[in-house]
Design goal:
The complex is a heterodimer of chains A (about 110) and B (about 110). Chain A has about 110 residues and is mainly beta. In chain A, about 0% of the residues lie in helices and about 60% in strands. In chain A, a hairpin with a 2-residue loop joins β9 (about 85-95) and β10. The radius of gyration of chain A is 14 Å and the shape is globular. The termini of chain A are far apart. Chain B is built from no helices and eleven strands. In chain B, about 0% of the residues lie in helices and about 60% in strands. Chain B has strands spanning about 5, 10-15, 20-25, 30-40, 40-50, 55, 65-70, 75-80, 85-95, 100-105, 105-110. In chain B, β4 and β5 (about 40-50) form a beta hairpin. The chains are: A mainly beta (about 110), B mainly beta (about 110). The interface of A and B includes residues 9, 42, 88, 98 and 107 of A.
């Protein structure tokens, strides 16, 4: 069974601070996805990283895929209250042909206080 | 309008009742999924379907059944609801080559 460990589970910070969320596994993934879920909504895809060592930036969010494709991190610079939400990572493994199996982490609940 | 629509958004029911949660999508994706989300447990896959004639169990299918009525419709049924099925349920679709999921807004089910 593949597991994705996310840390921290909860994070409460002040507006303007920086933070990093980690997603770790002993398994290799073909790609890794990050989602954000706001209260009362479904998760929304933020980014997919595919290549080991890849770094992608989305405004103040920086996503990195580990060289061995077993781990990933999400760094937020100068957090804002609008960044509040549950951040989920999901590792994808190819289960044959064009079929992918997704393994979700349990999420990091981020609260950014004004 | 949302690409993935779930009904009802909220439902309170009693133990032993039959419940159906419905999902429809306008994304044109063949692949559809049902997940449940519980605090501290994350998202867990209940059932998935890669096309109308393909239904597969996920990691927690016991107590649930599904029906894929059309490419755009995928419903989840609880034949006899029990309190530990109280959860937030999500329908999702995916594109075939990336596995990236598009979620509905969720159906919150409470079983008393």
């Amino acid at each position: 069974t593949q597991l994705l460990e996310q840390s921290p589970q909860f994070l409460s910070i002040q507006e303007g601070e920086n933070l990093t969320v980690y997603c770790n596994s002993s398994s290799v993934f073909s790609s890794l996805q990050w989602y954000r879920q706001e209260p009362g909504e479904g998760p929304v895809l933020l980014v997919t990283v595919v290549t080991g060592g890849e770094v992608k930036k989305l405004k103040r969010l920086t996503f990195q895929f580990g060289d061995a494709r077993k781990d990933s991190s999400l760094h937020i610079t100068a957090a804002q209250p609008g960044d509040t939400g549950l951040y989920l990572c999901a590792g994808a493994t190819n289960s044959g042909g064009s079929n992918y199996k997704l393994t979700f982490g349990k999420g990091t609940l981020l609260t950014v206080n004004p | 309008d949302a690409d993935v629509t779930q009904t009802p958004r909220n439902r309170i029911t009693k133990t032993g009742k039959r419940i159906m949660l419905e999902c429809s999508q306008t994304k044109g994706h063949d692949r559809m999924y049902w997940y449940r989300q519980d605090p501290g447990l994350g998202l867990r896959l209940i059932y998935y379907s890669f096309d109308v004639k393909d239904i597969n169990k996920g990691e927690i299918s016991d107590g649930y059944s599904v029906s894929r009525q059309a490419q755009a419709k995928f419903s989840l049924s609880l034949e006899s609801a029990i309190p530990n099925q109280t959860a937030l349920y999500f329908c999702a679709t995916s594109a075939p080559n990336t596995g990236e999921l598009f979620f509905g807004e969720g159906s919150r089910l409470t079983v008393l």
